[in-house]
Design a protein that fits this description.
Blueprint (H helix, E strand, L loop, with lengths): L4 E6 L14 E6 L5 E2 L12 H12 L5 E5 L7 H6 L6 H11 L9 H5 L18 H4 L17 H17 L4 E3 L12 E5 L16 H18 L3 H4 L6 H10 L7
Parallel strand pairs: 1-4, 4-6, 5-6
Antiparallel strand pairs: 1-2, 2-3
Helix pairs in contact: 1-6, 3-6
């Protein structure tokens, strides 16, 4: 086993970074136990906020516990985006550039406020809703990260979540391995954050009374745990890509579990 702890997160791009979002759910399991839901710290807000979740993750991943976190939103954009805006194929710089134009982490800021050009500079960092990353072309149902307002799309979650990846890079006490941007191979003893697609696994596990968001997060944690325990997780770090495809995927990101 590579990890001691497994965290599955079902994300939401609703409202603002400080809004209580029913769609954000977190399940955690250590060792061979059963994934259990983690509620946000006690506050007037009933559900997790994006800011609160990032702060909690920052604290947890700063501990000496090798952990893998699966989050269900895109971590980068298709190559057409990098080409259109002449951006270097570099994960941290991509996040910096994105946050500059889409400051969705700021208070009182909805993704739609920037889409509608009320704040920010999103008009200068847009994409076509027909663009797909290589990893999305390898799945049957994944949608473009620029396809908003459609059932099953993670566009809004992605645009809301990207600045918090930068936050974790900058503020976590221990270095986090962002896969595959920091390399396809996972260093021993490290904690990892990876993009996931819960639809791949949700039918494998009984619902047991969980709603859709809860079951998505549960399924991620349970699959990560099971794949690590049975020794198959290592094979997913190295999808069967050509060298050219590997370079593309290292810039665009890859959905863990897609092979």
């Amino acid at each position: 086993m590579h990890f001691d702890r497994y965290i599955g997160i079902d994300y939401s791009g609703a409202e603002t970074a400080d809004s209580s979002c029913k769609g954000i759910r977190v399940f955690v399991v250590e060792g061979v136990g059963e994934p259990a839901q983690v509620q946000p710290p006690s506050s007037p807000r009933r559900y997790w906020t994006r800011r609160g979740l990032a702060e909690w993750l920052c604290e947890e991943l700063g501990k000496e516990i090798p952990t893998i976190v699966g989050i269900d939103h895109g971590f980068s954009f298709p190559m057409e985006y990098f080409d259109r805006y002449h951006l270097p194929l570099d994960g941290p710089n991509f996040l910096l550039d994105f946050q500059k134009h889409w400051p969705t982490h700021e208070p009182h800021t909805y993704v739609d406020f920037i889409r509608n050009c009320n704040i920010g500079d999103g008009r200068n960092r847009t994409g076509d809703n027909t663009w797909l990353r290589l990893t999305e072309r390898w799945t049957a149902t994944a949608k473009s990260l620029f396809l908003f307002d459609v059932q099953g799309s993670v566009a809004k979650s992605t645009f809301a979540g990207l600045p918090w990846l930068l936050y974790l890079r900058n503020w976590c006490k221990r270095p986090i391995h962002f896969w595959p941007f920091d390399g396809w191979k996972i260093p021993d003893g490290s904690s990892v954050i990876a993009e996931v697609y819960p639809t791949l696994w949700m039918r494998r596990f009984e619902r047991d009374g969980r709603d859709g968001d809860e079951h998505a997060a549960y399924s991620v944690a349970a699959w990560l745990q099971g794949a690590d325990q049975n020794g198959s997780l290592g094979s997913y770090w190295n999808p069967p890509l050509t060298e050219a495809e590997r370079e593309v995927a290292k810039a665009e990101g890859w959905i863990l579990g897609v092979v």
